[in-house]
Please model this.
Amino acid sequence: MSESPEAVDDGPTRVFVEHRELLFAIVYNIFGTVADTEDVLQETWLSWTGRARRSPVEDIGNPRAYLVRIAVNHALARRAAITRRRETYVGPWLPEPLLDGPAAAERADDHALRSESVSLAMLVVLESLTPLERAVFVLNEVFGYPHTEIAQVIDRSPAAVRQLAHRAREHVHARRPLYRAHPRVRRQATERFVDAALGGDITALMEILAPDVTVWTDGGGKARSAGLRPVRGRDKAARLLAGYATRRGTGLDVRYRRVNGDDSAVVFDGASPYAVMVMDLTPDGEQVSDVYIVTNPEKLAHVRRDEEADAGGFGKAAQGRRA
Model:
């Protein structure tokens, strides 16, 4: 069995553990999944300890840069296999949601994920980039790496990195405006939306949904309520969303938490997680332009109904509400 950072107390291990949060956050933003990210970190650890056996770690002038380079290149090598896997995924694929606070997974890297991971909606946009464009965008736009350092990480010239960064930035900004609603506006819109959706209020849904709203539901073929393609348009979206209340009656319990840094709703059916719902708003903050619903139980496995976490939620709804 291979060694793990937690099992060895030596110089290389201490260096790796010091940078593990950063590595996790970078790779998660490249993948959008936790399991693949953890696999890459294990590969990075093995590469790092192999290097340490050949020569002293002290000989590496910048261990942080060295580890980032190993992790990003392992991630890029894995992207082809991940892309093939997602091509056979049943229905729309959405990133795995990461919850802030104690209810998220009990990993030492949760703090970095909360502070550095981009929104779930942005991760969806990043899926449309090439692997190299995404790596450059994440390193430059999210973590502030200059082009010269990124060039060393991905073994490209600074000019090539600038071109990749320009293409990625143009693509992202074209699909996702720079506007971000004020947190108070997001909280209010989220509560209005959830009240209408889980209350089966078609009239209220028609008011809060934008005419060209899109609903993305990721059930992974394991949740019968999830559609096989995105639902576009206010009328169809309202009927779909109201159907959640019709199918589940009054058994759903809503807990408002921050997911990938955004105020969102986590829905429980009894003690089991049923869905994570994240909303994007129109530029005026008045209507919902996109709805992302994750119901795939594999992606909700780390979501727990934690009263301590709920106490840190937002607004009056933080204690949960029967729908």
Notes: Strands lie at 209-218, 231-232, 252-259, 262-269, 272-281, 288-294, 321-322. The first helix runs from residue 11 to 31. Residues 27 and 37 are 6 Å apart (CA to CA). The chain has a mean pLDDT of 83.
